[in-house]
Design brief:
By secondary structure, this protein is α/β, with parallel strands linked by helices. Strands 5, 6, 7, 8, 9, 10, 11, 12 and 13 form a nine-stranded mixed β-sheet that branches. The chain has a four-stranded antiparallel β-sheet with strand order 2-3-1-4.
């Protein structure tokens, strides 16, 4: 492919990404893969170049562009040499004087008032920086010191005692340590959520929004004697946990839930859990550096829905915790309404509950919890709060 053809391919992919973001379709990575699956003539250098153009355009635009061409015109503003590719054979149509490029930005304008006040504009660029690849060591079976010998390019994560940090775009899915269940890919911020739970071997633990089970696996590694139930309403994601648990040597029960009947389906846990983790569905604003098109998918209506869902899940969780037990709430979000504001409203509804210090060596105090951010902590963005039910 010529450089002009690569740019045209990027525009075509961006058109698909924009439509998918609008219609809640597959993510950009999947769209890029699908695009080249039907274009076998494109070599590895072509695929790499097109992907780089696509994600440069996605990271550059806070608002969803009108079209892939408008997004590409934004790239021209940053790199005028790209203008020479318009009008070339197999390239984009020639430039027109009446065309408008997508404006550059980090945070969608409508979301700026929603951001935590702990995140000033000078921290916004870090929200879109390329993220490293973090690994969590399975401490039930080995140590970080031992695993670092197998990853000479890696370093210890600054905060989590379980983590190893590798450069962006590192691959470990064919590494012997991964195949042996000694490591899992998990951002340091996500590891810190499990650390905030302070699991004990005697605990009965419920991971209420377990997804594919990353945090349940971390809890099991930290407290192998704990009884852990991983629950979720997404069958496809929950099914991924069993092979991961088998590889890690973890014993974790799973349960598929059917909203809005969660309370009924978890009635055997009512007032019995030592710990309930609510890693709730959220805006995903803390993961923009990994999923930058997430900014294009979020709408005010969608945000209202996830905030209402978080509130409902917290109230369900409160019923499941035993007297004296604890509840840990987490969201991969940088928005006050989902973090500090959500816990403030919970404590207003449940006045007997007590907020406790979150015992992790990172983050900044944000209401009754801690906020982890890419600029301050070099992790994905997370809010985490630890609560205790009165005896």
């Amino acid at each position: 492919m010529t450089p002009a053809a690569r740019l045209q391919a990027a525009i075509e992919v961006l058109d698909e990404v924009i439509a998918s973001a609008r219609d809640d379709g597959p993510p950009a990575d999947a769209i890029v893969t699908r695009y080249f699956k039907h274009r076998r003539y494109a070599g590895s250098k072509d695929r790499r170049a097109v992907r780089e153009l696509v994600f440069r355009a996605i990271r550059r635009s806070a608002q969803r562009p009108e079209s892939g061409r408008a997004a590409a015109l934004g790239l021209v503003e940053d790199d005028p040499s790209l203008a020479e590719l318009f009008g070339q054979p197999r390239g984009p149509e020639p430039l027109r004087t009446d065309e408008v490029a997508t404006s550059a930005g980090f945070v969608p304008e409508w979301l700026v008032p929603e951001l935590s006040p702990l995140i000033p504009p000078d921290e916004w660029p870090a929200l879109l920086e390329r993220a490293p690849l973090d690994l969590r060591v399975n401490i039930a079976r080995t140590s970080r010191a031992e695993l670092l010998k197998q990853f000479p390019e890696g370093a210890s994560t600054p905060i989590s005692p379980w983590g190893i940090r590798l450069p962006p775009d590192s691959r470990v899915d064919d590494h012997p340590a991964f195949e042996a269940g000694l490591i899992e890919v998990q951002d340091e911020g996500s590891q810190l959520i499990a650390l905030a739970c302070v699991p004990n071997n005697s605990d009965r633990i419920l991971d209420l929004c377990a997804g594919a089970g990353g945090k349940a696996l971390a809890l099991s590694a930290a407290a192998p004697g704990a009884s852990i139930l991983a629950a979720d309403s997404n069958r496809a994601r929950l099914l991924k946990l069993a092979p991961r648990a088998e590889r890690a040597g973890a014993s974790i029960e799973t349960r598929l839930l059917s909203p809005p009947r969660e309370s009924e389906e978890l009635s055997d846990w009512r007032g019995e859990a030592d710990l309930v983790l609510v890693d709730a569905p959220c805006s995903g604003s803390g993961t923009w550096r990994r999923n930058p098109e997430g900014r294009w998918r979020l709408t005010p209506e969608r945000l209202d829905r996830v905030v209402a869902l978080q509130e409902r899940l917290l109230d369900i969780a409160a019923e499941l915790v035993r007297p004296g037990g604890r509840l840990v709430y987490a969201v991969c979000s940088l928005l006050s309404r989902e973090g500090a504001g959500q816990i403030e409203r919970f404590l207003q509804r449940h006045s007997s509950w007590i907020s406790e210090e979150t015992a992790i060596a990172g983050g900044r105090l944000d209401g009754a919890g801690l906020l982890l951010t890419p600029a301050h902590d070099r992790t994905d963005g997370f809010f985490v709060a630890r609560l205790r039910r009165s005896c």
